[in-house]
Amino acid sequence: MDKLKRVLSGRDAEEPSGLAEVIDATSLGWGTRVKGFIACFAIGCLCSILGSCLLWIPKKGLVLFAVFYTLGNIASIGSTMFLMGPMKQLKRMFEPTRLIATIVMLLCLILTLCSAFWWRKAGLALLFCILQFFAMAW
Question: Is the pLDDT of residue 70 over 80?
């Protein structure tokens, strides 16, 4: 099967180098990529739903919502890395057309966690969660 892949890709004449063997050994198959995407996306959705349920807990609810919502967004972003690969995902995120949205989204992720843990401002954490949503939709 490897011989067929090399012939179809035009690498038949050359012997694979050590780096090419490492890259081939560490790349995930399509089925594994889809399973990783589904698992990571499900964890992201579960965290977001759990955060929404914890919103109604007195005193700590808003902070818990902000933390779980942010973790859900991080897991959702990580899930798409399974489909595209991390480098392609990062290259697309930092294209000129998406650069501002990416910076705003990453900044809001960090500021949400800062406002929840260090500054202990629940209203500010909620504001950054809303900004996360708009940046992700943008």
Answer: yes
